[in-house]
Amino acid sequence: MNRYAVFFLMAAVIFFASCKSAPQIVGAESDAEVVYRQGRHFFERGDYNEAEKYFMRVISEFSFSIYEPF
Q1: Are 50 and 42 in contact (CB under 8 A)?
Q2: Cα–Cα–Cα angle for 49, 52, 53, rounded to 5 degrees
Q3: Helix (H) or strand (E) holding 66
Q4: DSSP, residue by residue, 34-49
Q5: Mind listing the pLDDT tens digit for each residue in 19-64?
Q6: Which of 2, 13, 22, 52 has a CA that sits 20 to 30 A from residue 37's CA?
Q7: What single-letter DSSP state applies at residue 8?
Q8: In Å, what is the CA distance from 18 to each residue of 14, 21, 37?
């Protein structure tokens, strides 16, 4: 492989790996809101499997929160 191909392959791997990370949430009133808003981030981008992880975390760790579904 020539070095340009290796460079572009490494750049693509880094780019796609960074796209999966949850955004930093600023101004949230609670940890439950942070996790909920991170889930919304993935949901709005169509990554439903990742969003589900965050929503399930809200349900399991923050019961009785206003962000937990009834």
Answers
A1: yes
A2: 95
A3: none
A4: HHHHHHHHHHHTT-HH
A5: 567 888 878 888 899 999 999 999 999 999 999 999 999 999 888 8
A6: 13
A7: H
A8: 6, 6, 18
